[in-house]
Amino acid sequence: MLDRYNRKINYLRISVTDRCNLRCTYCMPPEGVPLKKKKENLSIDEFVEIVKEAVPLGFTKIRLTGGEPLLKAGIVELVQKIKALSGVDHLGMTTNGVLLSKYAKPLKAAGLDSVNVSLDTLDPQLYHSITGGGNIEKVLEGINSAIEERFTVKINTVVQDSTTEENILEMKTFCKNKGISLQLINHYSLKKKKLDNYCFDRPPPCEKCNRIRLMADGNLKPCLHSNIEIPVELKNIKSSLVEAVLRKPRRGGICTNRSMIEIGG
């Protein structure tokens, strides 16, 4: 489906939960976020129904994010049901990797195509600091498990002002030795105006943006850097999706009504 600016929108990112087992400094606000009750978030079947309506509109690439998607009860079932839908060409997941060694095999059996793992450093102490207490060994185990299951694996590394050239080189060498891809992501704030002159792989320039986002509470966000949200009408899902695409702004600005943990990046 084309938006008002002739961009082909074919990528639906789904935040299946806003819960996370890490507290990354650039993602989780210091005060945290109010946890929603289970009934406030979409169910597995509701997520599936939304994707089912999205595919005929041209959404062929789906990505499951969080929070941390592997904390979502029924995540393997969700993968299986989405992948079973005709027209879903690619189903990926972005995860912090902490639980990936446990889930890699069942996710592969369910049909998941690819895994992006968030990993900003190979230094255990620095990783512990960035993530608010995370254990890098669990993430490395998860990456190895994903490779063993023959997933397409990509490492997402957020480049901050404090990130050194040596750190980036270490990540490049690590990925090369593993035979996996590295994606460098400029650190950015939702509360600062969206730029298009970033130095690294992501975020993409607005003119090339091909995605909208579905949040765990059932709101569609046409643009990460915007306060525009469209509640999904479960009795008329198609119209909600169409409205989200048509209300996608030409350029991103700022977002003040959500934190990164709720949107899934």
Write up this protein.
By secondary structure, the protein is α/β, with parallel strands linked by helices. The protein has one domain: TIM Barrel (Alpha-Beta Barrel), CATH 3.20.20. The chain is built from eight helices and nine strands. It has helices at residues 44-54, 75-83, 100-110, 124-130, 136-148, 165-178, 237-246, 260-263, and strands at residues 11-15, 61-65, 90-95, 114-118, 152-159, 181-186, 211-214, 219-221, 230-231. It has a nine-stranded mixed β-sheet with strand order 6-5-4-3-2-1-7-8-9. The chain is globular. The model has no long low-confidence stretch (mean pLDDT 94).
Proportion of residues in helical segments: 25-40%
CATH topology-level name: TIM Barrel
User: What integer value in Å does the Rg equal?
Assistant: 18 Å
CATH class: Alpha Beta
Biggest β-sheet strands, sense, barrel: 9 strands, mixed
Number of helices: 8
Count of structural domains? 1
Superfamily at the CATH H level?
Answer: Aldolase class I
Fraction in beta strands: 15-25%
Order of helices and strands: EHEHEHEHHEHEEEEHH
Second-tier CATH architecture? Alpha-Beta Barrel
Uncertain parts? none
Amino-to-carboxy terminus distance: 22 Å
What global shape is seen?
A: globular
